[in-house]
Amino acid sequence: MARLVIFGSAAAVSDAEHDNTHFLLQGDYGSNILVDCGSNPLVKLRRCAVHPGALTDMILTHFHPDHVAGVPILLMQMWLLHHQRTLNVYGLHHCVCRVERMMQSFLWDTWPDFFPVVFHPVAEQPAQPVLENEDFRITSWPTRHFIPTIGLRIEVKTSGRIVAYSGDTEPTPDIVQLACGANLLLHEAAGGSAGHSSAAQAGQTAAAAGVQQLELIHYRVGDSDPHRLVDEAQTTFTGPVALAEDLKEYEL
Known about the structure:
Number of helices: 7
């Protein structure tokens, strides 16, 4: 069965139990899609019994360090492990161009026998196709963040289930549209400030979109107990609410 595995649940400042937000989508027909890469996913891949060589795609939501800083180390490790398969990288033009320039600063064109990496720019418009294969159909919506950023709507073809991921965002009608009728909404809860949402605002979005289940992600750790966010979200959303935590799995 397809699954989603949380590799990191924290906002920009991580701690020993909460890595920066990124996750893996694993399909029934061989898809292994990494969404964001703010840390070093290699260890998490192995803990989930996924060989790094099985990684097929990477989707980057935006060019902030907690979402892309792990790209160089991951690509270098895959190369040192003799990865050969083409890796497709999807994201807004603003993001993928900067990631490519970041890799150029590491002189990756001089790494011998380096595997192919293909960048696929995504338009910054609602309901834009990102990736489609036997396992998933993924579309993106722009969010309201400090820089160009996308959230994702993920359709699991084998089950028909819908997963929505808000990305980093203030409340916006685009995220309600993105999440409309979803079985699972992963929504950030970094706090109700510019570029982000509080847990109560995440609950409001979940209620407006009519989702079945809300999981809070990209939340602050270290200086407060994130579990209080569940109670906060339940003031605005009557459905099931929980925290997305590192290595938590969801059957899709």
